């Protein structure tokens, strides 16, 4: 492999295309959506049903508090699979737990995961749970979530067409800001005051797109509404938009001033010296939909009090960012600035 691995975080598109994509095991005509850089799920045909799958680490951060950590862990998993447009139904989960976890801590984690799965109609169907040496937080295993629906019910970049509207929920750096608020409330309180710190901590429970995605697909999918969705995780909103365009072979034109920004986000990102639009943003849903359905998608989100806006449109080619009436190329950030800032903050820098 000629391409270098990143110092931290997900592999680059070049590593994916050079190493992973050419070697995907046996071919199957039942694969409807296969592995693509920037696509959150794979989808296969089983009989007359579409079955979507996503696999991610089980990500537990004790410093969040055990219940919050478990809530975040399961919502990371569910947030990816719902971008298929299909409802999550089954969970397979593997826990490779550190030796230091206690019975009480595991009990809180599992009861929280059970509660969230019950709420969304997800059945746990298989798994593995054990403590092992040389395992450590936050990566304590892996899981696969399965969603299913009709063959005409899923969405994917292949259904996007030039002229489709681009809608964003919540805005940039939701995860980056939410994690900083949860991990370093005293620093935020010292800088901006206790009231700001308490308000910022509420960002934590915005780090999910499950409710957003389930709401918008009720408007309709493909020619009846939503054509594709993506959860803007590593490299944030700019990375998410770029990845969707690359996966679908289209372009985008977005206006920065139209993008909503949630309270406390700008201040937190400025404090830690990161660009919010390039920073990890679990909880930010990018939706592409037919333009005649955009108002209905916005209405569905606003009924849930989710900040949202049409920020641009799909084009035939090119990645264009409009800021202050000036057009510049929209490029992939490649490296998410959150990680350096986060580990620096842990060291007290």
Per DSSP, the total helix count is: 11
Mean pLDDT: 96
Helix content: 25-40%
User: What name does the CATH topology of the largest domain carry?
Assistant: Phosphoribosyl-aminoimidazole Synthetase, Chain A, domain 2
> What would CATH call the class of the largest domain?
Alpha Beta
The SSE order reads: HEEEHEHEEEHHHHEHEHEHEEEH
Q: Largest sheet at a glance?
A: 7 strands, mixed
Choose one word for the global shape: globular
- The percent range for strand residues is 25-35%
CATH architecture of the largest domain: Alpha-Beta Complex
Radius of gyration: 20 Å
N-to-C span: 35 Å
**What is the structural class?**
alpha+beta
Contiguous low-pLDDT stretches (5 residues minimum) are none
Strand order of the largest sheet: 8-10-7-11-9-12-13
- Total tally of structural domains: 2
In CATH, what is the homologous superfamily of the largest domain?
PurM-like C-terminal domain
Number of strands: 13
């Amino acid at each position: 492999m000629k391409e270098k691995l990143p110092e931290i975080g997900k592999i680059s598109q070049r590593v994916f295309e050079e190493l992973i994509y050419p070697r995907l095991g046996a071919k199957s005509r039942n694969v409807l959506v296969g592995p693509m850089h920037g696509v959150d799920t794979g989808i296969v045909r089983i009989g007359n049903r579409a079955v979507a799958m996503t696999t991610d680490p089980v990500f537990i951060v004790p410093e969040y508090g055990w219940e919050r950590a478990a809530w975040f862990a399961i919502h990371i998993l569910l947030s990816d699979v719902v971008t298929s447009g299909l409802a999550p139904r089954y969970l397979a989960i593997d826990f490779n737990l550190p030796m230091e976890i206690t019975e009480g801590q595991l009990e809180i984690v599992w009861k929280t995961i059970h509660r969230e799965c019950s709420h969304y109609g997800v059945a746990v169907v298989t798994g593995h749970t054990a403590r092992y040496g040389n395992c450590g937080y936050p990566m304590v295993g892996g899981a696969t979530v399965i969603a299913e629906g009709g063959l005409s019910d899923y969405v994917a970049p292949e259904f996007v067409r030039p002229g489709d509207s681009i809608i964003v929920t919540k805005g940039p750096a939701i995860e980056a800001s939410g994690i900083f608020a949860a991990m370093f409330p005293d620093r935020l309180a010292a800088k901006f005051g206790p009231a700001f710190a308490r308000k910022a901590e509420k960002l934590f429970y915005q780090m999910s797109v499950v409710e957003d995605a389930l709401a918008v697909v009720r408007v309709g999918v493909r020619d009846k509404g939503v054509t594709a969705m993506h959860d803007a995780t590593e490299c944030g909103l700019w990375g998410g938009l770029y990845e969707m365009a690359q996966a679908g072979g289209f372009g985008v034109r977005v206006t920065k001033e139209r993008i909503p920004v949630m309270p406390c986000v700008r201040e937190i990102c400025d404090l830690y010296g990161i660009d919010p639009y390039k920073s990890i943003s679990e909880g930010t849903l990018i939706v592409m939909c037919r333009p005649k359905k955009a108002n209905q998608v916005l209405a569905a989100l606003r009924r849930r009090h989710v900040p949202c806006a049409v920020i641009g449109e799909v084009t035939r080619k090119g990645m264009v960012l409009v800021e202050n009436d000036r057009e510049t190329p929209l490029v992939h950030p490649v490296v998410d600035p959150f990680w350096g800032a986060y580990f620096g903050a842990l060291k007290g820098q």
